[in-house]
Amino acid sequence: MFELREILLRAKNEQASDIHLAVGIPPKMRIDGKLVTMNYPRLLPTDTLEVLLTVMNEQQRDKFDETGEFDLTFATPEFGRYRVSAYKQRGTVSLALRPVPDKLPQVDSLGIPEEVMELAQLEQGLVLIVGIGGSGRTTTQAVLVDRINQTREVHVITLEDPIEFVHHHQIAMVSQREIGTDTSSVSSAIKAAMREDPDVIMIGDLNNKEVATGVMSAAGAGCMVLTAMYGSGTVDALENLVGLYPPAEQSRARNRLADVLVAVIFQKMSKPVDGQPRSVRYEILKSNHEIRKRIRAGKFQEILDLEL
């Protein structure tokens, strides 16, 4: 009989970053960036369906049935909180689970440069955090929000899908809204946020034209906006953002991006070497006159040649 508790315990003991459950194969876990097959029987359709029924409430299951995928957080008394991505494939249920620490890691332990942490004092403008899946973008966002929470008397609104790290009010007031639960979409939540007297808006992921437009509008209206994107580098992210728009709208998008961009932070997880744990490498691009000029002209690759 399949036992989710045993899988979570084994993964926790092995310090796995992710757990994968799919029909037809044994459970797998990711350790130091590599998938490892766990010593369990192949999963049956009833096994993954049982997990789905365990982690989702009725409203979430209805949404999953409608869309074929759903992201949420799930908590257990023994093992803490997990971010869960459930999706359908070939008529069966698959799930990816990622542990979420109860407490934010210390900045020193993460190796985040102080140059990045100083951006928590930003009063307005756009900060992009870029990387591939598993590079720690969500953690960097959360650590920056925590620094703001501890040091500035401001109103922070986070728009997340789902909420991972919970921020309690400290010096700042932090309003956390979960997409699909507290609001219908990121784009509508950004519009609503502008009527909620924000100083800082954090958006989990920038992944479509509507969100990009809302992000740049909010940054141009005097807010600090902190968001994340998939990308393989700082300049790659800028091209990707503009590429969300059709060709006829890209010139305007470049101009708006040039006006509001403050910094792009690219982070990449290193491979383990000689038994040492993986670490994150950071690359920071801060906007200036020369960068803004090239963004407006669409000459993104020339940014790489600038002596910054």
Tags for this model:
globular; six-stranded antiparallel beta sheet; Beta-Lactamase; 2 domains; 11 helices; Rossmann fold
Protein architecture, described:
This protein is of the alpha/beta class. Strand 5 and strand 6 form a beta hairpin. The protein has 11 helices and 13 strands. The strands form 2 sheets. A 7-stranded mixed beta sheet has the order 9-8-10-11-7-12-13, sandwiched between helices. The protein has a 6-stranded antiparallel beta sheet with strand order 3-2-1-6-5-4, with helices on one face. It folds into 2 domains: 97 residues, Beta-Lactamase (2-Layer Sandwich), CATH 3.30.450.90; 199 residues, Rossmann fold, CATH 3.40.50. It is globular and about 60 Å long.
Quick synopsis:
With 308 residues, the chain is an alpha/beta fold.
Layout of helices and strands:
Elements: H1 4-13, E1 18-21, E2 28-31, E3 34-37, H2 45-55, H3 58-67, E4 69-76, E5 80-89, E6 92-100, H4 107-110, H5 114-117, E7 125-131, H6 137-151, E8 155-160, E9 173-178, H7 186-193, E10 200-203, H8 209-220, E11 224-230, H9 234-242, H10 247-260, E12 261-269, E13 280-286, H11 289-297
Parallel strand pairs: 7-11, 7-12, 8-9, 8-10, 10-11
Antiparallel strand pairs: 1-2, 1-6, 2-3, 4-5, 5-6, 12-13
Helix pairs in contact: 7-8, 8-10, 10-11
**Secondary-structure arrangement, i.e. CATH architecture of the largest domain:** 3-Layer(aba) Sandwich
How many domains in all? 2
Radius of gyration: 20 Å
End-to-end Cα distance, whole Å, is: 59 Å
Oligomer: single chain
Bulk shape? globular
Catalogue the unreliable spans: none
For this structure, the CATH topology of the largest domain is Rossmann fold
The whole-number mean of residue pLDDT values reads: 92
